[in-house]
Amino acid sequence: MIGYEQILLSSIGGSAMTLFINGFIKSYNRTQKLKRTSKIFIQFIDEIIIKYLNKNIQGYIEILNMETDEEYFQARTVTLSPMLNKNIFDFFEKEDLIKISSEFKDKSIVDIYHAFYEIDFLQENSHWNIMNDFHSKLNKHYDKHKKENESLFDHIIWCQYYQRSKLELRQELEMQKLHCEELIKDFEIIKREILQSDFLED
User: Fold this and answer.
1) Residue 6: its pLDDT value, please?
2) N-term to C-term CA, the chain
3) pLDDT above 90 covers what percent of the chain?
4) Is the pTM of this model over 0.85?
């Protein structure tokens, strides 16, 4: 009888130890995965998000610094990133982001979602798209209202529509530049929160 009890207790002890070890391994693997995800998330923020949002800001500034009407119609090189959109959010498992953000003090998973969707809004309102819309509106207006043998640059000298459109353009560029700067601040805070999390501690 004693032998059976010893075998039974030994089996229970062995099972408990196996469960403990398996639980520990799963917990360790989960922690390591969250650590890797946190590091990759920081890389995305630094090397894609903030990098190209800053390039967008530079694009807004270059147009805002234009002094002559001719400059508004000159061809320019534009640097855009096809990766800078909310779809990069799908690279990360939602469960991982929820767990990582659970330690945040100033932001939440909702703020992360919001920031990623703001990226798409800003890309739709990039300096490139804003200028394309400006040129499109101006060309339609010019085609409709130009005088005989009047060039575009002759037309815009006296055209009130052009002056109003240019003012609206500058206001839109300034607004989106400020919006872009605020979004960079949001991602800087998210990055700081990740860096301060327990997942990155050795």
Assistant:
1) 56
2) 50
3) 32
4) no
Tell whether the torsion through CA atoms of 33, 38, 41 and 47 is positive or negative: negative
What digits encode the pLDDT tens for the residues 104-113?
888 888 998 8
Distance CA 134, CA 73 (A): 10
Per-residue pLDDT at 24: 44
Q: Which two tokens stand for residue 136?
A: 């499109």
164 pLDDT exceeds 90?
Answer: yes
pLDDT of residue 12: 52
Distance (Å, rounded) from C-alpha 101 to C-alpha 197?
Answer: 9
Between CA 113 and CA 94 the distance in angstroms is 10
Query: Beta-carbon neighbour count of residue 40 at 10 Å?
Result: 13
Q: Residue 199 in contact with residue 38, Cβ under 8 Å?
A: yes
